[in-house]
Amino acid sequence: MESVAADVPLQHYLVLSGVLFTIGVYGVLARRNAVLILMSVELMLNAVSINMVAFAVYTAPSLFIGIIFAVFIIAIAAAEVGLALAVVLRVFRNRGTANVDEVDMLKW
Amino acid sequence: MDDAWVLPVMPLAAFVALLLTSQYLPRRGDWVAIALMGAAFVLVIPIAVDMADAIGEAGVGNFEGVSRSEQWIEIPGYIEIRMGTFVDQITLVMLGVVTFVALLVMIYSTGYMHGDRRYGWFYSIISLFVASMLTLVIADNLLLLYFAWELVGLCSMLLIGYYNDKQSAAEAAKKAFVTTRVGDVGLLIGIIILFWQTGTFDIHTILEAAEAGEIQREWLTASAVLVLAGAVGKSAQFPLHVWLPDAMEGPTPVSALIHAATMVVAGVYLVARMLPLFEVVRGLPELITALGLTTTMLAALIGLAQRDVKRVVAYSTLNSLGLMFVALGSGAVGAAMLYLFVHAFFKALLFLASGSVIHATEEQEVDKLGGLWSKMPITAPAFIIGALAMAGLIPLSGYWAKDEILVGVDHGPLNDVVLLVLYISLPLTALYMMRVVMLTFFGKPKDEHVYDHAHESGAPMTLPLILLAALAVVGGFVVFEGVGEALGFHSGWLGFVYNPIHGPEEFHVDWTISILSVVLVGIGLLTGIWMWSGTAEPARRAGAFSPLLYRLFYNRFYIDEAYQAGVNYIVLAAGRVVAVFDRVVVNDTGVNGTGEATGFAGWLGKFPQTGKLPNYALAIVVGIIVIAAVAFGYRGT
Hints:
The complex is a heterodimer of chains A (108) and B (637). Chain A has 108 residues and is mainly α. Helices cover 72% and strands 0% of the residues of chain A. Chain A has helices at residues 10-30, 34-59, 65-95. Chain A is elongated. The model of chain A has no long low-confidence stretch (mean pLDDT 89). Chain B is mainly alpha-helical. Chain B has helices spanning 6-21, 30-58, 89-112, 119-138, 142-160, 167-198, 203-211, 217-234, 243-246, 252-261, 266-273, 275-280, 284-303, 309-329, 333-361, 379-391, 397-410, 415-441, 448-453, 459-474, 481-486, 493-496, 511-532, 537-545, 547-554, 559-605, 613-636, and strands at 66-75, 79-87. In chain B, strands 1-2 form a two-stranded antiparallel sheet. In chain B, helix 6 packs antiparallel against helix 8 (217-234), helix 8 (217-234) runs antiparallel to helix 11 (266-273) and helix 16 (379-391) packs antiparallel against helix 18. Chain B is globular. The model of chain B has no long low-confidence stretch (mean pLDDT 89). Chains A and B meet through helix 1 of A and helix 27 of B.
């Protein structure tokens, strides 16, 4: 694959990835709805994917390492979200709420 | 004389054998102890013969003892400690006295202690005591001597507390041990100082070093005073005399053997043995004399007011011990050892005779006795002979010994003052001895019941009495040159036992002293008889004359109470400190505190468990940031 380095420098992609990741972290920490937290986790995963692919394209395009990593991330993210949503569903049925602030039975 | 070490082995074997097997042996094995004791006594004879021969060869005044030592511990180039024996004239006197009196006491005990619950144990501990005492007197080095010294003290404590169901006996045993411990600690420190300064425990090397001035003056003085402290404790000199009268809680044979004839004279032996050390220190002989005088006068006054026969004899022992120390303070070793020799006889006689009275009447207080002369035809004259010998009536043994002490003191320092005090003590001693004689054996019986039951004791008890009485009468004649030579010793007593500085002496009479002492003793005896005969009216009037003095004497000058108050104060004060420490530091802070701190930590630790997912997520994120910062920070450096 030909490098597109001349037009868009690598740092741009890295900053994009970092910003997306940070927004994702903020979402995980600040959202009350469990589903929204999961969406933020997805955002973080996607940010990491962009990071991996950017490095792969700009540094060693013939190896496809980053791209393969991104494929892995998509598969794992899908599996994990399936599991996580199942848990949220159970909690919702049990507690009547998806608000994580209210699910604090394990407190002292 | 090289094989003197065999002597202690025999009673030691009796101790071990009886300790392990006495309950299985017929008569609990008393014959084992007596047989081995008899063997030890018999084996003293060849030693005496050997020594007499050696003196004959070397000439009177030239025999200096035979020593034998083996290496025990050696660290090459650093320390060498040897163990061995040394036998000279002083040793021989002690060996003879200890084995002989011990044998008699053991025979006497078959009657006195008959049927007692701890009969076998009694014989085993007495055997251990004799073994230790014999070791003490043949030791050639201070370490072995100290070892035996402690053992002797232990046996004394065990035997004082023999009647272990009596609280008073246990208290007396504790008092004896603790009081002599004070002296023993001094002795130990003194020995250590001497070892440190001279590099050896060997007595002769130390004495030579002291005489040659090789020891620094401060350490010389310190060690001499400390060693003297040991002797003061063991020989019950003032101020460590308080244990001896209480030691009468022990059985009478124990009192006769340990607290009259043998153990208490261990201090006299030690001072006599170490005298060259003491004489080099300025003022120490005077100190010894002062302590002896205080002890002897104190004891005489207190004995005058006691109502228990054994107590009176105990105070008479203190009286005698003080006399021996006075003699040693003036350097009169021959006189002191002569007194030790005859004192063993008449004091053991007095104790054993008291025991006979106690055995016959089950009473000890003179308030319950009286008129026993007709009921105890052997014990009564025996006791009286002992009392007269103690008082120093001529020609009994005590007279010759006291006379020699007076002569010896006359040649020593401070002779005027010391002689004056001794002269005062002569009629006093006669007085209190006659008091107890009159109150016990004469006059009207004060308790009819006791009088009716009184009877003479059996043979095992009366035979030793007769033997000791005979010796109390003739024992003093060994001062005469003729007697000594007839016995094979080539001289009288004073040529046999003497102060190495002064050399051997020949017996001679100092007429002034002799006549004065005879007169004073006579006055004391007659006054005693007059005051306490019949209904003892003169004595009652004397007592009424000054009730304050009487109470002072009767309560032993309140010295015991003063000591007890002091001990109480110190012990309670220390106890309070320890109690506070235990309560505050150990319990409150340590134990309770640890528990509460742990609980508090647990209480603190529960707050992070909010149960809320966002909190946990935040914690994870913060943690990752911190770890990343640290990792990249290190990478940076």
